[in-house]
Amino acid sequence: MPAVVTTDVDLYSVEGVSSFDMEKMEYFGLSVFWRGAVNEWKTTAGLKAPPVELCTYEEPIRAFLMGSRSIPSDVVLTVDLWHSKRVLQASFVPLATHRPECQSYWFYIPGLIFRIYFGARIPPDIRSRDAARKYVGVDVPAIKSIWNIAKTHVQTSEITPKMKMMLDEVAAIRSKKSQ
User: Fold this and answer.
1) Would you call 99 helix, strand, or coil by DSSP?
2) pTM
3) Local structure of residue 164 (DSSP, 8 states)
4) How far apart are CA 1 and CA 5, in angstroms?
5) Residue 39 Cα distances to 19, 67, 80, 124, 162, angstroms
6) CA atoms of 167 and 113, how far apart (whole Å)
């Protein structure tokens, strides 16, 4: 049962849920954003991933990851769960989201959306979703957006010989199942 229900997001408290370690989720999420700031990554297609600009928060986040300080109060990490059993099997490198109040980036791994917000003007509705408060969300509009990004990427990507072979195998398996 959601602890908080809004028009876009349902929040679930995971405090006391032993199988859901929010400290590890926070560490993982922040480490990916930090690594995106200090490394130049390439996508699986060999393209250069956009840089993550953590600005003055790069060093405090590094210090948190090293265990020498807490997360700065003007940094919020949110974690959202995929809303159905049919989970998008894709990953996205950290990408910027344009917000007027604060800076923000997100990344997706199968079943989980991580978002970081930083700056002095983080809106209260985002602060209330902070993973440090032991909440996870289900943000259906964000999920639909990620699904559409993945769909567009697939539709506009060049089909490589390996991908063609895989798609032919999938088609063959599906035709056997329908017989």
Assistant:
1) coil
2) 0.83
3) H
4) 10
5) 31, 21, 25, 31, 29
6) 27
pLDDT per residue over 29-41, tens digit each?
Answer: 999 999 999 998 8
Tokens (6 digits) for 136: 């996870």
Q: Is-contact 33 52, C-beta < 8 A? A: yes
Compute the distance between CA of residue 26 and CA of residue 13 in angstroms, rounded to an integer. Answer: 15
Q: Which of 1, 110, 117 is closest to 52 using CA atoms?
A: 117
List phi, psi (to 5°) of 68. Answer: -100, 0
User: pLDDT per residue over 44-90, tens digit each?
Assistant: 777 888 999 999 999 999 999 999 999 999 999 999 998 888 888 88
Chain centre to alpha carbon of residue 1? 23
For residue 4, pLDDT beyond 90: no
φ and ψ of 116, to 5 deg: -115, 135
The residue extents of the domains of the chain are 4-178
In the numeric block, the tokens 């390996």 are attached to 162
Q: Report the length, in residues, of the chain.
A: 179
Nearest to 80 by CA among 129, 27, 15, 153: 129
Question: Is pLDDT at 2 greater than 70 in this prediction?
Answer: no
Per-residue pLDDT, averaged over 126-143, amounts to: 90
Pick from 74, 69, 78: which is nearest to 26 by CA?
78
